[in-house]
Design brief:
This protein has 192 residues and is of the alpha/beta class. The protein is built from 9 helices and 6 strands. Keywords: Lipoprotein, Signal.
Length: 192
Protein backbone atom coordinates (compact mmCIF):
# COMPACT_ATOMS: atom_id res chain seq x y z
CA UNK A 1 0.00 0.00 0.00
CA UNK A 2 2.81 2.38 0.95
CA UNK A 3 4.58 1.59 -2.30
CA UNK A 4 1.39 2.35 -4.27
CA UNK A 5 0.97 5.76 -2.59
CA UNK A 6 4.60 6.65 -3.35
CA UNK A 7 4.15 5.56 -6.96
CA UNK A 8 0.98 7.64 -7.38
CA UNK A 9 2.64 10.73 -5.88
CA UNK A 10 5.71 10.29 -8.07
CA UNK A 11 3.54 9.91 -11.19
CA UNK A 12 1.52 13.04 -10.37
CA UNK A 13 4.68 15.08 -9.81
CA UNK A 14 6.14 13.87 -13.11
CA UNK A 15 2.97 14.81 -15.01
CA UNK A 16 2.81 18.28 -13.42
CA UNK A 17 6.49 18.92 -14.18
CA UNK A 18 5.99 17.86 -17.81
CA UNK A 19 2.98 20.16 -18.18
CA UNK A 20 4.88 23.10 -16.69
CA UNK A 21 7.89 22.51 -18.98
CA UNK A 22 5.57 22.33 -22.00
CA UNK A 23 5.01 26.09 -21.69
CA UNK A 24 8.61 27.26 -21.06
CA UNK A 25 10.18 29.26 -23.89
CA UNK A 26 6.88 30.08 -25.58
CA UNK A 27 5.24 33.50 -25.92
CA UNK A 28 1.54 34.08 -25.37
CA UNK A 29 0.07 37.27 -26.84
CA UNK A 30 -3.07 38.55 -25.14
CA UNK A 31 -5.22 41.06 -27.04
CA UNK A 32 -7.47 43.45 -25.11
CA UNK A 33 -9.16 46.82 -25.39
CA UNK A 34 -8.00 49.66 -23.19
CA UNK A 35 -10.86 49.22 -20.69
CA UNK A 36 -9.81 48.93 -17.03
CA UNK A 37 -11.65 45.59 -16.77
CA UNK A 38 -9.85 44.06 -19.77
CA UNK A 39 -6.50 45.43 -18.63
CA UNK A 40 -6.88 43.99 -15.12
CA UNK A 41 -8.03 40.56 -16.33
CA UNK A 42 -5.22 40.41 -18.90
CA UNK A 43 -2.66 41.27 -16.21
CA UNK A 44 -4.05 38.58 -13.91
CA UNK A 45 -3.75 35.98 -16.66
CA UNK A 46 -0.31 37.29 -17.61
CA UNK A 47 1.09 37.16 -14.08
CA UNK A 48 -0.46 33.74 -13.39
CA UNK A 49 0.86 32.19 -16.60
CA UNK A 50 4.33 33.72 -16.29
CA UNK A 51 4.77 32.82 -12.63
CA UNK A 52 3.42 29.29 -12.88
CA UNK A 53 4.79 28.16 -16.28
CA UNK A 54 7.70 30.36 -17.32
CA UNK A 55 5.86 31.29 -20.52
CA UNK A 56 6.46 34.88 -21.62
CA UNK A 57 3.26 36.88 -21.94
CA UNK A 58 2.81 40.12 -23.87
CA UNK A 59 -0.38 42.16 -23.62
CA UNK A 60 -1.33 44.03 -26.79
CA UNK A 61 -3.90 46.83 -26.53
CA UNK A 62 -6.31 47.55 -29.38
CA UNK A 63 -8.84 50.32 -29.91
CA UNK A 64 -11.72 48.06 -30.93
CA UNK A 65 -12.92 44.48 -30.80
CA UNK A 66 -12.70 44.36 -34.59
CA UNK A 67 -8.96 45.10 -34.41
CA UNK A 68 -8.53 42.32 -31.83
CA UNK A 69 -10.31 39.75 -34.02
CA UNK A 70 -8.25 40.86 -37.02
CA UNK A 71 -5.09 40.24 -34.97
CA UNK A 72 -6.45 36.81 -33.96
CA UNK A 73 -7.13 35.96 -37.63
CA UNK A 74 -3.54 36.88 -38.52
CA UNK A 75 -2.04 34.87 -35.66
CA UNK A 76 -0.79 37.97 -33.80
CA UNK A 77 -2.93 37.28 -30.72
CA UNK A 78 -3.62 33.91 -29.12
CA UNK A 79 -5.87 34.85 -26.21
CA UNK A 80 -8.56 37.50 -25.74
CA UNK A 81 -11.01 38.53 -23.04
CA UNK A 82 -14.58 38.40 -24.35
CA UNK A 83 -18.12 38.74 -23.07
CA UNK A 84 -21.16 36.80 -24.18
CA UNK A 85 -23.10 39.84 -25.47
CA UNK A 86 -20.33 40.83 -27.87
CA UNK A 87 -19.68 37.17 -28.70
CA UNK A 88 -23.32 36.68 -29.74
CA UNK A 89 -23.22 39.85 -31.83
CA UNK A 90 -20.14 38.60 -33.70
CA UNK A 91 -21.87 35.37 -34.73
CA UNK A 92 -25.06 37.28 -35.61
CA UNK A 93 -27.15 35.74 -32.85
CA UNK A 94 -29.69 37.68 -30.75
CA UNK A 95 -28.90 38.63 -27.19
CA UNK A 96 -29.78 35.80 -24.83
CA UNK A 97 -31.44 36.45 -21.43
CA UNK A 98 -30.07 33.27 -19.87
CA UNK A 99 -26.33 33.70 -19.25
CA UNK A 100 -25.57 29.95 -19.34
CA UNK A 101 -27.43 29.52 -22.64
CA UNK A 102 -25.57 32.52 -24.09
CA UNK A 103 -22.28 31.01 -22.98
CA UNK A 104 -23.03 27.65 -24.59
CA UNK A 105 -24.03 29.36 -27.88
CA UNK A 106 -20.89 31.52 -28.12
CA UNK A 107 -18.71 28.61 -27.08
CA UNK A 108 -20.06 26.46 -29.92
CA UNK A 109 -20.29 29.19 -32.57
CA UNK A 110 -16.86 30.74 -31.93
CA UNK A 111 -15.20 27.37 -32.29
CA UNK A 112 -16.89 26.85 -35.68
CA UNK A 113 -16.53 30.42 -36.94
CA UNK A 114 -13.22 31.65 -35.50
CA UNK A 115 -11.38 28.51 -34.28
CA UNK A 116 -11.54 29.96 -30.78
CA UNK A 117 -12.21 28.06 -27.55
CA UNK A 118 -14.03 29.74 -24.67
CA UNK A 119 -12.57 28.80 -21.28
CA UNK A 120 -14.54 28.84 -18.02
CA UNK A 121 -16.18 32.22 -17.26
CA UNK A 122 -14.22 34.65 -15.11
CA UNK A 123 -17.57 35.91 -13.81
CA UNK A 124 -20.53 38.11 -14.63
CA UNK A 125 -20.24 41.77 -15.55
CA UNK A 126 -23.25 44.04 -15.31
CA UNK A 127 -23.50 47.17 -17.40
CA UNK A 128 -25.72 48.99 -19.88
CA UNK A 129 -28.78 47.29 -18.41
CA UNK A 130 -27.58 43.73 -19.04
CA UNK A 131 -25.43 41.06 -17.48
CA UNK A 132 -22.95 39.03 -19.46
CA UNK A 133 -20.41 36.38 -18.70
CA UNK A 134 -16.79 37.30 -19.29
CA UNK A 135 -14.28 34.62 -20.24
CA UNK A 136 -10.82 34.13 -21.67
CA UNK A 137 -10.99 32.88 -25.25
CA UNK A 138 -8.01 31.04 -26.71
CA UNK A 139 -7.06 30.12 -30.28
CA UNK A 140 -6.84 26.47 -31.26
CA UNK A 141 -3.23 27.03 -32.32
CA UNK A 142 -2.22 28.26 -28.86
CA UNK A 143 -4.21 25.44 -27.30
CA UNK A 144 -2.14 22.99 -29.34
CA UNK A 145 1.15 24.70 -28.39
CA UNK A 146 0.30 25.23 -24.71
CA UNK A 147 -2.08 22.40 -23.78
CA UNK A 148 -1.78 22.96 -20.00
CA UNK A 149 -2.90 26.60 -20.30
CA UNK A 150 -6.69 26.16 -19.94
CA UNK A 151 -6.38 24.24 -16.69
CA UNK A 152 -4.17 26.98 -15.24
CA UNK A 153 -6.28 29.92 -16.46
CA UNK A 154 -9.45 28.22 -15.21
CA UNK A 155 -8.10 28.76 -11.68
CA UNK A 156 -9.39 32.34 -12.19
CA UNK A 157 -12.97 31.14 -12.74
CA UNK A 158 -15.42 33.43 -10.94
CA UNK A 159 -12.80 36.07 -10.12
CA UNK A 160 -14.96 38.92 -11.46
CA UNK A 161 -17.56 38.13 -8.79
CA UNK A 162 -15.04 38.49 -5.96
CA UNK A 163 -15.86 41.49 -3.73
CA UNK A 164 -12.32 42.87 -4.16
CA UNK A 165 -12.51 42.80 -7.94
CA UNK A 166 -14.74 45.88 -8.43
CA UNK A 167 -12.49 47.78 -6.00
CA UNK A 168 -9.45 46.84 -8.10
CA UNK A 169 -11.16 47.98 -11.34
CA UNK A 170 -11.83 51.37 -9.69
CA UNK A 171 -8.17 51.56 -8.70
CA UNK A 172 -7.12 50.86 -12.31
CA UNK A 173 -9.46 53.66 -13.45
CA UNK A 174 -7.72 55.92 -10.93
CA UNK A 175 -4.38 55.23 -12.66
CA UNK A 176 -3.13 52.47 -10.38
CA UNK A 177 -0.98 49.87 -12.11
CA UNK A 178 -3.02 46.79 -13.12
CA UNK A 179 0.08 44.56 -13.03
CA UNK A 180 0.79 45.47 -9.42
CA UNK A 181 -2.85 44.94 -8.40
CA UNK A 182 -3.02 41.61 -10.23
CA UNK A 183 0.18 40.37 -8.58
CA UNK A 184 -0.98 41.39 -5.08
CA UNK A 185 -4.39 39.76 -5.59
CA UNK A 186 -2.94 36.48 -6.92
CA UNK A 187 -0.47 36.33 -4.03
CA UNK A 188 -3.28 36.93 -1.52
CA UNK A 189 -5.27 34.09 -3.10
CA UNK A 190 -2.14 31.87 -3.06
CA UNK A 191 -2.30 31.37 -6.83
CA UNK A 192 1.32 32.46 -7.26
Amino acid sequence: MKRLVVLVIFTLLAVMATQARACVGKVLYIGVTNSPNDQLLAEMISVLVTERTGTSVKILTFKTGAEIYNAVRHGQVGLIIENTDHGLELVKRPREANAKTAFEIVKREHRKTFNLVWLEPLGTLTGNGSSQLVAPVISLEILGNLPALPKLINKLTGIVNDNNYSRMVKMVKAEDKPNKLAREYLKAKKLI
